[in-house]
Amino acid sequence: MRKPVSLATLVLSLGLLGSSFALAPLVFAHPNDVAGNAAVVNLAGKRLNTLAENYYNQAARFEPLMATSNGDNRFDDQLPMTLVPAVRARQVAMYRQVAKELASIHRSTLSAADQVTYDCLDYDVRSALAMFAFKDRLMPLNQMDSIPVVLANFASGQSSQPLQTPAQYEMYLKRVAQLPAWIDQAIINMREGMRQGIVLPRALVVSTLPQLQTLVTDNAENHAYYAPVKKFPASFSEADKTRLTTAYRNTIAHTALPALRKLHAFMQRDYLAASRSSSGLGVLPDGAKWYQALVRDQTTTTLDPETIHAIGLKEVARIQNEFVLLGPQLGYNGDPKGLPAWIDTQTQYRPFSTEAEILAEYRRIDGIIKGKLPELFGKIPKAPLDIRPEPEISRKTASDHYSAPAIDGSRPGVFWAVINDPKHYSTTGMTTLFLHEGQPGHHFHLAFLQELDIPKFRKFGGNNAYTEGWALYAETLGKEMGVFEDPNAYLGHLTDELLRASRLVVDTGLHAKGWTREETIKYLQATLGYDEATARNATERYMAWPAQALGYKIGSLKIMELRQRAMNQLGAKFNLRHFHDAILSDGTLPLALLEAKIDKWIIEQQKL
Q1: What's the rounded Cα separation, in Å, for the pair 184 and 179?
Q2: Mean per-residue pLDDT for 469-479?
Q3: Full residue range of the structural domain in which residue 230 is found
Q4: Positive or negative: CA dihedral 427, 431, 432, 436
Q5: CA–CA distance, 456 with 61 (Å, rounded to integer)
Q6: Do residues 116 and 207 share a domain?
Q7: How far apart are CA 15 and CA 6, in angstroms?
Q8: In sequence order, which ranges of 197-300 are alpha helices (DSSP H)?
Q9: Is 122 domain-assigned?
């Protein structure tokens, strides 16, 4: 199942064959290929759906933060303890049992729809088992993934953890009370990592320490976890307020704060000294195999790092050629490669003074796009989309992102805009960013998932290549919507596309070709026009999340390839609205399965 990116994740899945990770081809079967009679098909389908439901429930118990992010609130009082070897072993055993039970169901006896579920579950479980072969548990936190910081975000009341009733307040507090156990195990694991030479790069430790420092306050009342007490709902009785205030103060002061001080001291004193000077995953024990497994997991392809690196270089060159024509339209006549850096110096594209003005501009963009969507999509998600600023504690290291609506409708989809200094916030990338993180990007994909009659593991699981590939493809639709007629907005799209192409270069460079952090920073500065701080933050993200950034461009290129194939084969019968609906209609799919699905759709359209 996919680990949310915001936790990091995102994790957001590996073969009983271990590191060889040989995935069988994924194919769509025609209904006429289903063997047996209706009763057999019905029985097999029930077995599969029962297995799928049990799989989701067991996986959610192991990953309760993920469940909370999905709007599944059964485990809102729990933290994941898969860092504990015995718990980890039970988790692996669960995946192996699911794989065994799935293998006992004959795929050919399933309906066409259930075969899709079969293939998705098969891929999901084998992906997870393959990644269990590596020792990520020895590096349990970084500046992008940290359970103490996630808890602080949850305390804001604007994130996934519901804080509207006394019972919900109590569940959150129970979660906080479990933090010492998680921290103790995290330290044990990091000490083991120190012994085995599996540790974070020093730069990531340095970036993590300020986050932990903010959680080491002098008293409970100033702590981020105390935020719920400062904004009780009006419906709470005075007795509940008094009781919860005391409970929060005591738990934070006597349970959470001592543990957080212990973690911060360990990271600052012991772990920083043991951290490594290298930047990429490839230098670690089994690092090359580890990275290759992550590449396959994140792209759902068999592409190797060298091939992906070459694709990235080719895409970078193509996009930079677009700057040749665009530069003069903006009044720039220098080296085309310098256009992104030049636009960053143009003060007319930084008109904001306050956070509210930026949010208002995003809402204006949203209004324009909403009017264009019916031209490109036959279906529109039912769930609303909200626009909110990223909570302050995570702004310095967070990227703009989207969180899906709760499955029960209690929470809308949310586009989280990271706004640090409004006076330096540029309009250049706002439109393309909203197309990606808002609609029709992540919102159309993930909100539609809530409406599909599919097992929960498919609603909440999936893969990065489809998820981010669709969102990046959605950015390209701005041209057809007419929102890129402004050269500044179109430059924003090209620079963001250039970023995704550059990621193919630098991610593989860092983790497979031995690039250093400093070399990567310089490449991003030269290619994207980034200042040093922005290039550093981006580089450290790729260091913390190996291969995660590859799915965007690989997935987008596949969707564009499938669209061109459909246009070529269907000619006048091609309908873009129907194509988009077909891409989204089964939710998140590995790219091989998506390709088989669209090939089948093309044949069906030819018969109409």
Answers
A1: 9
A2: 97
A3: 147-279
A4: positive
A5: 14
A6: no
A7: 26
A8: 202-214, 238-251, 257-266, 272-274, 287-299
A9: yes
